[in-house]
Amino acid sequence: MSDSVPGDDAVPGAPRVPAAPSRRGVLRTTAGAAGAGLGLAALGAAPAAAAAPRPAGGTAAGPAEPAPPPRQGATMAGVPFERRSTVRVGIVGLGNRGDSMIDLFLAVPGTRVTAVCDPVREKAARAAAKVVAAGQPAPAVYTHGDGAYARLCERGDVDLVYVATPWELHFEMARTALLSGKHVGVECPVAMTLDELWALVDLSERTRRHCMQLENCCYGRNETRVLRMAHAGKFGELLHAAGAYHHDLRELLFSPTYYEGPWRRLWHTRLRGDLYPNHGFGPVANYLDVNRGDRVVGISSFGTPALGLAEYRAAHMPPDHPSRKESYVGSDRTVSMLRTAKGRVIRLEHDVSTPHPYSRVNSLGGTRGVFEDYPARVYLEPDHKDHQWGDFSVYAGEFDHWLWREHADPPGGHGGMDYLMVYRLTQVMRLGLVPDFDVYDAATWSAPVPLSHASIRAQGAPVAFPDFTRGEWRRSRPGVDSERPAEA
Length: 488
Known about the structure:
Blueprint: H1 23-31, H2 48-51, E1 87-92, H3 96-107, E2 111-117, H4 121-133, E3 140-142, H5 148-153, E4 160-163, H6 167-179, E5 183-186, H7 194-207, E6 211-213, H8 221-231, E7 238-246, H9 250-253, H10 263-266, H11 278-287, E8 296-303, H12 308-316, E9 334-340, E10 345-351, E11 363-366, E12 369-372, E13 377-380, H13 396-399, H14 402-406, H15 417-431, H16 439-446, H17 448-457, E14 463-464
Parallel strand pairs: 1-2, 1-4, 2-3, 4-5, 5-6, 7-10
Antiparallel strand pairs: 7-11, 8-9, 8-14, 9-10, 11-12, 12-13
Helix pairs in contact: 3-4, 3-15, 6-7, 7-16, 8-11
């Protein structure tokens, strides 16, 4: 479509990408399928267990790894964006996350929101009003039909498609954006099965468009400081790291208004594994240069019984509540141990079903000391002694990331890291630079979803972890710990 094509009402005959499920359709389906869980096969995606490799017998080298599928295009590692003066963004999904993120896209210089899409017309109208209030032209609005987001992706005035929808829609929407010639940034996880993750890797390489997991925690102040300290050798030779998503979501999972339908809660009726590994995994993968000199080769996962959601339901939901038909299989807490090619160990945890304070754990250890978060504390030789934790803030002056030096009090939620993620993404797009993370990182950070499920079902047996880079991981290259660009 040309830059002047308006939204839904003026293009009733616009072509549609085949097999593109709508969020409204998925929500309608899942609301009536509480007992059976989510029908992934109906969405064109294989169930997670079927998409994961079978556990292999353990050896000194770990489980046998299937050969990766043949590469369909050149690698996207190190490929820069095409330079542009303005980044034009189309936003798909305007619920809690999308509605908050649109404010940040509007706050970043050199960025325009040109189109918005959501099946709930009131949400789309509210987003469009924000764009106009920010002094930008009214965006095209897409709310009609299953192919609404596909029509947004076809527009000529969209450079980046931002996807903030229920998880089961991420793959198809990212796929549609790539096939439409657009770069795409997706909220966590980027996809739910290995087949989908490999498909996005192949599509990114074939279309020469970036597909990125927009992991905001990679830009947290503590996370970026630890990253720079690790690269400066403050921890010595790196040995182990840990990340998690401990967030008591019980009230929100049963809220009739917070999520658009029960889609997130219903994932607990389908998968036993780590449903949301990215917030913990992304930062520690950066610390250990995963896909940039090291890679994960195997995973072994364990899960507790699934009791928390049913107990909360019994205490807080009326007898006729639709959730009474649901059977939860998702472990209240999952613990996964990942091993890298260099022999390092990563621990990932997930728990949204039991009461506890928020934590992402966020730990890194090496031969010269360790950092642990929540609360932040550090112990490094020769700086500390007598087994007493040190003050992490002492390292701010020397090791804070240049993004935090220039934006000491960034706007937006999650302590400012949302804004810095958007700022950095649009900056590299405007200047024609390599993104801080790419489709290989997106696939790696999301792969524990199906892999942990497979390992838990196999009583914790180790499962091989795919090399989505197809060997490119051996090459050292920059990531989030990047040099400040010379603005032009």
